[in-house]
Specification:
The N and C termini lie far apart (about 35 Å). It contains 3 helices and 10 strands. It has a 10-stranded antiparallel sheet, with helices on one face. The longest helix is centred in the first third of the chain and has 21 residues. The chain has one domain: outer membrane lipoprotein receptor (LolB), chain A. The N terminus is likely disordered. It is α+β, with helices and mostly antiparallel strands. This is DUF3261 domain-containing protein.
């Protein structure tokens, strides 16, 4: 019975994500890829994360496990106990394993860029940006802009979570992280 419920949940999630993704308009602007070296992260990370994704009136909660060190970034994202995507980035090659139910609009490249925008040092991000793009960070808020328009913004909230507002693609992502390395 539990297997049937898990499979039904996965199918329902697939349908909901597909409905949400199929309505995704073309981005207003193409955000520059970051593809930052894992070694540019100042310290290793081992985080368990709760992700709250909002696109228009659609909202989804996901869980993620993130490990990053100087050699590699590894991320697994799950929904209702089912792994949707696993990605690995070694600074040269991005590999991913996707569940068949995951909509094609959920791209490993965008997931990696959001992750790096949220967690990597501002100077590493600035060094990776093409001409015309700027990053600013006042300690509370980080913004990526072009020609004076902010297209990606990260707010560090008082409860320790962060909220990413992707204005180019029209979604927000709230990330709550638990440091797994600190719990050992």
């Amino acid at each position: 019975m539990q297997r049937l419920i898990a499979r039904l949940s996965a199918v329902l999630l697939c349908l909901l994500l597909a409905a949400c993704a199929s309505r995704m308009p073309r981005p207003l602007v193409e955000l520059p890829p970051l593809r930052l070296a894992p070694s540019s992260l100042p310290a290793p990370l081992a985080l368990q994360q709760q992700l709250h994704f909002r696109f228009g009136s659609h909202e989804r909660d996901l869980d993620a496990l993130l490990e990053a060190d100087a050699q590699q970034v590894r991320l697994a994202v799950q929904a209702m106990g089912q792994t949707g995507v696993r990605l690995q980035w070694d600074g040269q090659q991005l590999t991913q394993q996707r569940a068949p139910w995951l909509p094609p609009q959920v791209r490993a490249e965008r997931v990696l860029d959001d992750l790096q925008f949220a967690l990597w040092p501002t100077d590493a991000i600035a060094a990776a940006l093409p001409a015309g793009w700027q990053v600013s960070d006042d300690g509370r808020q980080r913004s990526l802009s072009r020609d004076g328009t902010v297209w990606l913004q990260l707010q560090r909230l008082a409860d320790g979570s962060v909220q990413l507002d992707n204005r180019a693609e029209g979604y927000t992502l709230r990330i709550e992280s638990i440091d797994m390395a600190g719990q050992q």
